[in-house]
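My current task is to audit a protein record that another person submitted. My question to you is simply how this chain folds and whether the tokens agree. This is what I was given:
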Amino acid sequence: MPPGAPPAYAQECGACHLAYPPGLLPARSWQRLAGGLDHHFGTDASLDAATAQSIATWLQAHAARGGRAAEEPPQDRITRAAWFQRKHRHIEPAVWTLPAVRGAAHCAACHEGAARGRFDDDALRQPAGLTPRQRRAWSD
């Protein structure tokens, strides 16, 4: 996670989901997301103007500038980005619906360092509820 995150970022955004590292999306995606908080994926996540501007400025300053995350994903969803899809292609659809996982957007279900912006493959944990076959596939 880049330094200097506005305290409101973790407090406001992190109240509903992981306060995602800004490098997971390009600046234009963050701009659209920050500009549409009144209809943020079906929820009104509106903030006062000063707080919203502070968060938006920080997100855009630390957004992806090159590489795999610089591509704008469909609907500005990290989980629909091509790099995310490639990285998680081995995950069976049933795994995303496990109570311990609750969907692809809940990174911390498997990535212990997600809150710190760390998504290393070496630090993965198997979520509870995997079948024996899924546990074996996880280890491959």
Q: What stands out?
A: The chain is about 35% helix and 0% strand.
